UniProtKB/TrEMBL annotation:
InterPro entries: Glyas_Bleomycin-R_OHBP_Dase (IPR029068), Glyas_Fos-R_dOase_dom (IPR004360), GlyoxalaseI/FosfomycinResist (IPR050383), VOC_core (IPR037523)
Gene3D superfamilies per record: 2,3-Dihydroxybiphenyl 1,2-Dioxygenase, domain 1
UniProt keyword annotations, A-Z: Dioxygenase, Lyase, Oxidoreductase
Taxonomic lineage from the root: Bacteria, Pseudomonadati, Acidobacteriota, Terriglobia, Terriglobales
VOC domain boundaries: 12-142
Source organism, top-level taxon: Bacteria
PANTHER family: GLYOXALASE FAMILY PROTEIN (PTHR21366)
Taxonomic source organism: Granulicella arctica
Keyword Glycoprotein: no
Protein name: Catechol 2,3-dioxygenase-like lactoylglutathione lyase family enzyme
Recorded GO MF terms: dioxygenase activity; lyase activity
One of the Pfam families matching this protein, by short name: Glyoxalase
Membrane spanning stretches: none
């Protein structure tokens, strides 16, 4: 696939930078939803502009990395219909176990923060949220609990080749099943067999079917 045979280290993605019209709104959302900690924040006058517009930025992280996300406030940003132009579709934060994903769902649901889409893609279970700027954030867990096994399944499994599409799931049904003693792997298999589907699709899910 790549004619370049030179062996080099693969780069990693240490952080993302997001622009926003309201840094306080997104900062509160990420610190709540993803348990981000504020590493540093600046609210400095920008002397390059006659109105001395404040230059606001905030660095946050939820692990050992210095910062995972950087928010920069640009008050004059124009809102666009992001579904109809090239864009970053979503970015992902992964949990080590499905119970942690379900606990986060339950915690956010109590605050009326609900995912716009919940799926099992055969390699992972993923809940998609929208932040205050409608950036899509995926919270997920590897269904195989083993990255090598997951990668091998996606690449070589005839089952995945025959049915690669995502299955919509109802998180509340998954929580009830786990409380009833269903194992994470059995949960996944039963989803693929057609169980735990939502009673009705959300407006976002319906829009994706017709996009």
């Amino acid at each position: 696939m790549n004619a370049n045979k030179v062996t080099t280290m693969r780069p990693r993605l240490p952080h993302l930078i997001l622009t926003t019209t309201s840094i306080d709104a997104v900062l509160n959302w990420y610190c709540n939803a993803l348990r981000m900690d504020l590493v540093h924040r600046t609210d400095m006058p920008d002397s390059k502009h006659e109105d001395e517009q404040l230059h606001k930025a905030a660095w946050v992280s939820n692990d050992e990395t210095e910062h995972r996300l950087l928010f920069v406030e640009l008050p004059k940003l124009a809102a666009t219909d992001e579904l109809h132009h090239p864009r970053l579709q979503h970015f992902t934060f992964e949990y080590p176990h499905i119970d942690e994903l379900l606990k986060t769902y339950a915690r956010l649901k109590e605050q009326r923060i609900l995912p716009v889409q919940c799926t099992d893609s055969d390699a992972k279970t993923a809940f998609y949220y929208e932040d205050p700027d409608r950036n899509r954030v995926e919270l997920s867990v590897d269904d195989y609990a083993d990255r090598c096994a997951s990668d091998e399944h996606v690449q070589y499994s005839p089952e995945f080749d025959e049915s690669p599409m995502e299955y919509y799931v109802d998180p509340d049904q998954l929580i009830a099943a786990r409380k009833a003693g269903v194992s994470p792997w059995e949960l996944h298999e039963r989803v693929r067999a057609g169980e735990f589907a939502p009673a009705k699709l959300s407006a976002f899910q319906l829009s994706q079917l017709h996009a």
